[in-house]
Amino acid sequence: MTKDKLDIEPFRQWSPAGDNLLLIAGPCSAESERQVMNTAAQLIEHKINIFRAGIWKPRSKPYTFTGCGEKGIPWLLAVKREFHLPVMVEVMNADQLKLVLDKGIDYIWLGARTTINPYMMDEISEALHGCDIPVFIKNPISPDLNTWIGALERINGAGIRKMATIHRGFQSVYSAPLRNEPHWDIPVKLKCTYPDLPILCDPSHIAGETKYIEDIVTKALALETSGLMVEVHNNPSEALSDDKQQLTPTQFGKMLKNVNFHDRCRTLASNTPEQEEVIAKINTCRQIIDGCNEDLIKVLAQRMAAVKEIGEAKRKIELPALQASRWRDVMNQCLSLADELGLSKELVTEIMDVIHKYSIKIQ
Ligand code: PEP
Ligand code: MN
Fold first, then answer.
1. Architecture category of domain 11-263 in CATH
2. How far away, in angstroms, is 29 Cα from ligand 2 center?
C-alpha cells in the first residue's frame, strides 16, 4: 500500500535556492582539508547552493579507499565557515547519523546502497526521530519504485518534513555506455505519485564518465528536475573514488553555461514575452495530445471488444487463439502504414506486440 500523501514542507521554504533550481556540488569523497577547501573555493564562483562530500564511502571492493571518516567533519565545517556554504554528507547507519547531527552539518543524503535496504532504512529512521535535519533520499540501486517510496515513507514517518529525492540511475547489465541506467520513467512516475516532492538529478552517477554528463543534465532539465547534485573535484585524475565521473570546477562551469542553468528561473511571473509564446505553444500541443490520448483509449476499447468476440467465436469451432500467419499479416500492414506516416517501426512493433499479448490473454 502506498500512502496517497507524504507530509512534507514545501521545498521552496527550506531549499537554500528558494524558488530556483537547487545546485549541489562537491567531490565524491573528502580526501583532505586542502582538497575540500580548494574545490569549494572554485565552486562558489559557479553559485552552488550546497557543498557535498562523502566521508564514509560504500565501495564495491574491500581494499579500496572507504572514506576519511569522522575526521572529515571539521574539514567540511571549515568550508562552511570560510565560504558561507551549507554542507552535506552521506550517512549509512544510525552511528554515522549520530556523529554528524549537532555538529553543524546542514544536510544529509542517503545513498542508493542504503535506500535499497529496508532494515538500514528502519535503523536510520528511528535515529532521525525528533531531528530537524533535511534529508535527501537517492533512488535504490534496483529499478523498483516501491522500494524508493518505502524509503520515503520511512523517513517521513520518522517526522522528517524537509525531504527531497535524488535520481542517480539504476544498476543494470544493459546500462552501458552509462554507469547506471536512468529509467527516466521511474522518477516521472514518482513525480506523478507525489507532485510536490522535489526530485533532483545526480548526472555523475548515471554517467560514470564526464562526457555523458551534459546530455543527462539536459534531459533532467527537460523533465523539470528540481535541481542537480554533481560530483566536482579540484583534480579528478588524482581522486580516490569515482575519478572518471568527476568534473573539474572549470568543466562544471562550462556545463552549467551550456545548459543555461543559471538563467532558468522557475517563477512564471518572470517569463519574457518570447517564453510566454513558447509556453502558449506547449499548451496547445498538450491539448492536442490530450485529445489523441482520449481517441487512443477509445479505439483500444473498441479493438479489445472485437478481440473478445473473436475469442468466443474461435472457442465455438475450437480454433486456437493464436494464428501466426494472421498476426504476421496484421504486423506487416501496420508497419507499412507506419512507414507511410513516418512513424518509427520500433515504436509500432513494440506497441502492437503489447496489444497482441493482451489480446491473446483475454481470448
Ligand atoms: C555518492 O554520491 O558519492 C554516492 C556514493 O552515491 P550513490 O549512493 O548514488 O552511489
Ligand atoms: Mn561518487
1. Alpha-Beta Barrel (3.20)
2. 7
